[in-house]
Design a protein that fits this description.
Strand content: 5-15%
Largest sheet: 5 strands, antiparallel
Order of helices and strands: HEHHEEHEEEEEHHHHH
Radius of gyration: 21 Å
Structural class: alpha+beta
Strand order of the largest sheet: 4-5-3-7-6
Number of strands: 8
Mean pLDDT: 79
Low-confidence stretches: 42-50, 177-195
Helix content: 25-40%
Length: 278
């Protein structure tokens, strides 16, 4: 008998946001349109894109603590086929340092404070209290999984959980943002060829700063908040040539600090430009 659904229900009741995983550790699509990830596997956050189902149905965005959802008929087929339980570390208020080989484990023992530890197939998960941006490959065999990411549930582990250490915060900061170096915004010239009405350093700086703040203070629906912010910035400045590489870089950095991947930033930017007909 598959005990995974029962275990997942118990974890959700304890406040852990869970989701079903396949044998290859990928999440299931939990609506008919996304069955077998036919939509491409992109968590839907109500923005334009290949996934058009009406609610977040897979990936970290689908993780839930609602027992009624976990036990629903909509999730039943996935739980029957599931081979593991996933959870959203950021939603649980924790950060998982995924150590994928013995060398990575040795590094953690030398560099990180002891905390709750869980054995994995190839290494260990070190779990800390607090959340950070999720970043893969900060070192060889070391991934950081927290906001907008998912990890496998492998048991409660051993050891007393402590706060995310400074070295992890530094690793997250050091990992470079990965937007394209040659990012260009191809937009029409200002109507009539006149002087751009927005080409004021103060006006533009205030607009970019407000956009950064809007992204950084989003408490839920971060993906949608990023898209709406990109759309607003492009609406105000995209057609008059105000935006520079530095401005776009600041927006992408703010989004990635909240846990957005470079790919999702690219998608949100492309969707915003397409929506505006640019």
């Amino acid at each position: 008998m598959n005990s995974i659904p029962t275990t997942a229900l118990g974890l959700a009741e304890q406040g852990l946001p869970v989701l079903p995983l396949r044998a290859d550790k990928r999440p299931f699509g939990l609506c008919r349109a996304c069955e077998d990830l036919a939509c491409g596997g992109r968590p839907n956050m109500r923005v334009p894109g290949p996934c058009v189902c009406p609610w977040p149905c897979h990936g970290w965005a689908a993780a839930t603590t609602a027992p009624a959802v976990v036990a629903s008929s909509q999730w039943a087929a996935a739980w029957r086929r599931a081979r593991a339980i996933g959870y959203h570390p950021g939603g649980a208020g924790v950060t998982v340092i995924d150590l994928d080989n013995p060398a990575a484990v040795d590094w953690a023992r030398d560099s990180l404070p002891p905390t709750t530890t869980v054995a994995t197939t190839r290494g260990e998960h070190w779990i800390y209290r607090g959340t950070v941006r999720s970043v893969n490959a900060v070192r060889d065999g070391v991934d950081i999984k927290s906001l907008m990411s998912y990890a496998r549930w492998l048991g409660p582990g051993t050891g007393l959980m402590v706060d995310v250490p400074a070295v992890v915060h530094e690793l997250v900061k050091v990992k470079p943002a990965a937007w394209p170096a040659s990012r260009a915004v191809a937009v029409p010239a200002p109507a009539g060829g006149g002087r751009c009405p927005h080409r004021s350093p103060v006006y533009l700086e205030r607009g970019i700063a407000m956009a950064e703040q809007r992204i950084s203070t989003a408490t839920s629906g971060v993906h949608a908040a990023v898209y709406r912010t990109f759309l607003a910035v492009l609406s105000a400045h995209g057609r008059c040539g105000c935006l520079t590489e530095a401005h776009i870089g600041r927006l992408f950095t703010a989004a990635q600090t909240k846990g957005e991947s470079a790919r999702h930033c690219e998608t949100a930017w492309s969707n915003a430009t397409a929506a505006l007909g640019m």
